[in-house]
Design a protein that fits this description.
The structure is a single chain. The chain is of the alpha/beta class and about 240 residues long. It has a domain at about 75-245: Rossmann fold (3-Layer(aba) Sandwich), CATH 3.40.50. It is about 40% helix and about 30% strand. It has helices spanning about 10-20, 50-65, 125-140, 160-175, 185-195, 215-245, and strands at about 5, 20-30, 30-40, 40-45, 70-80, 90-95, 120, 145-155, 180, 200-205. It has a 5-stranded mixed β-barrel, surrounded by 4 helices. Strand 8 (about 145-155), helix 4 (about 160-175) and strand 9 form a beta-alpha-beta unit. Bound molecules: adenine. Adenine binds near residues 76, 158 and 183. Adenine (ADE) binds next to strand 5, strand 9, strand 10 and helix 6.
Length: about 240
């Protein structure tokens, strides 16, 4: 069974590439995919690229061209839940698109013709990722809080406190209070739903989606998020391997 590991950022993928055995690079859909093994588990590594459409193309290619049978996503996000702080990690249960609005034809946030606002992660895979997140952070001896819940995606880098507050309030009023905001997860979740492929995602909180988000983001990505992602994926793949044995 091939597991796809989708990273949002090149910095996050770098550590995985260094661990990849029998590495083979393949170009497809204008993207690079890396096939190989991590701790004996067959994997394909890819960068999601930024935004919902780019991430959907990457996810579709992973499934159609590389036969990925489960997808795991690592990346960073802005924390918008009240107690979600920089340095915390959110493992997703579900995704909503905060910029989906086909009203009055369909209710706000509903994905037209799917009759739903949210796409869920695979419960078992999300639990495995949650366990790997706790174990990986434990290895790094970091006291980060791990949250498990709803993430909102949209084609916008949220970088103003008032915008983050309004986005959180509008979603909450509709019954979709999110912990974090990012730009790809809901698209990958929808593609995986379409193909019936299990999906799980974790996001390290790089900023609070406020007026300092653009300053916090690049610094955090290079200094912290890539270390988190490597430790967590390493742990996750080891666990997958054990459960196969
Ligand atoms: N990813 C990381 N921080 C983000 C933010 N503030 N908005 C959207 N995506 C993000």
């Amino acid at each position: 069974m091939t597991t796809a590991i989708l990273s949002a950022l090149a910095e996050e993928q770098q550590g995985l590439l260094e661990l990849l055995q029998h590495a083979q690079r393949v170009r497809r859909a204008g993207r690079e995919f890396w096939l190989g093994e991590l701790h004996g588990t067959p994997v394909v590594l890819a960068l999601s690229r930024i935004g919902k459409v780019a991430a959907a193309t990457t996810a579709t290619t992973l499934i159609e061209a590389f036969g990925a049978q489960r997808l795991v996503f690592t990346g960073v996000a802005g924390g918008i839940g009240a107690d979600v702080q920089v340095g915390d990690v959110v493992v997703a249960t579900e995704f909503v698109q905060h910029d989906m609005d086909a009203s009055p034809l369909f209710p706000r946030y509903q994905i037209p013709l799917y009759d739903r606002e949210r796409f869920a992660c695979d419960a078992a895979l999300a639990q495995a990722l949650l366990g790997a997140t706790r174990a990986g952070l434990g290895q790094l001896e970091l006291p980060a809080t791990v949250h498990h819940g709803l993430i909102a995606s949209g084609d916008r880098f949220v970088s103003a406190a008032e915008e983050a507050r309004a986005l959180h309030a509008a979603l909450s009023d509709a019954g979709h209070a999110p912990l974090a905001v990012e730009m790809e997860g809901a698209a990958v979740a929808q593609v995986c739903h379409d193909y019936g492929v299990p999906f799980a995602a974790m996001r390290t909180i790089s900023d609070r989606a406020d007026d300092t988000a653009h300053v916090d983001f690049p610094k955090f990505v290079t200094e912290v998020a890539s270390r988190y992602a490597l430790a967590i994926v390493d742990e996750f793949v080891r666990e997958l391997n054990k459960s196969r044995a």
